[in-house]
Design a protein that fits this description.
about 280 residues; alpha/beta; two-stranded parallel ribbon; 9 strands; globular
């Protein structure tokens, strides 16, 4: 199902920075109106002001997506400013630096609440709204990751969340196959954002080792967020069920298909040494 975002209302989480901020501006440039969601009120206001320069109608919704009650309140808050949305982009995400043994259960749960459960809860809340409005196509977008294609070491929580969102999105796509609501799952490679620097440190990791690991990992973050936003919206408009971003994403996708067990042993030779990516003992 192809759709044009021009003249449509888009709901976007994680809109204050990174890919989310780039998506907000790219949507506005293509003629969409925006309901922007983030917990960073100042960052959200800055992006909203820039989006309005394109003539977009923009509402901002400051919400902690780890809070189920805050998510449940969003559809009514959005309806107060906009017609029925045609596009929901579940972009918000966080990272956690450390091995599985270095993180405690509360930290793991915190990441899953934002990266997985927030998208599930918001999708549940917004589905009845997406069914309303004109007869045109609707689309739900989930930001997974290349770590939703292959699970590397020291990314147990993050990879778990991205594999989970991929599985949820694929199943939902099949359930909605006979409706006008399509589902796109996005697997970005290394996008040049501050997600690594903003990552939470696991409880039992040496901060100095973590800093070195983050620095090494940032070397692989090469694709500009503006490029990621363009690729995502191009995929949305052509009705793509799956979008890969970056040459690294295509390489990882190919290797994960050809070598589902040994893929990581090949991939790690192309990246910083795994021992540089946070190897402090628990």
């Amino acid at each position: 199902m192809r759709m044009r975002v021009n003249g449509k209302v888009a709901v976007l989480t994680g809109a204050a920075s990174g890919i989310g901020a780039a998506l907000a501006l790219a949507l506005a440039a293509r003629g969409a109106d925006l309901a922007l969601i983030d917990r960073d009120a100042e960052g959200l206001a800055r992006i909203a002001e820039r989006a309005r320069l394109f003539g977009a109608s923009v509402s901002t919704h400051v919400a902690d997506l780890a809070d189920a009650a805050a998510i449940a309140a969003l559809p009514d808050a959005i309806a107060a400013s906009h017609a029925a949305p045609a596009l929901l982009i579940n972009n918000a995400g966080v990272a956690l630096v450390g091995s599985f043994e270095q993180m405690d259960e509360a930290e793991f749960a915190w990441l899953m609440d934002i990266n997985f459960w927030a998208a599930v809860r918001l999708t549940r809340a917004m589905l009845p709204v997406l069914r309303k409005g004109d007869a045109g196509p609707r689309r739900i977008v989930f930001l997974s990751s290349v770590f939703g294609l292959v699970g590397p070491p020291w990314q147990a929580a993050y990879a778990a969340s991205k594999f989970a969102i991929r599985g949820f999105g694929e199943s939902l796509r099949h359930e909605l196959a006979d409706t006008r609501i399509g589902v796109t799952i996005v697997h970005p490679g290394g996008i040049r954002t501050n997600i690594a620097r903003a990552a939470r440190l696991a409880a039992r990791i040496d901060p100095a080792v973590a800093a070195a690991g983050v620095k090494a990992f940032e070397i692989s973050l090469k694709t500009p967020p503006e490029t990621a936003a363009r690729v995502i919206l191009d995929g949305v408009e052509r009705g793509a069920p799956r979008v890969l971003i970056g040459a690294d994403a295509y390489t990882i996708d190919t290797l994960s298909r050809l070598m589902p067990v040994r893929a990581w042993s090949v991939i790690q030779r192309r990246l910083a040494r795994p021992q540089d990516l946070v190897t402090a003992k628990p």
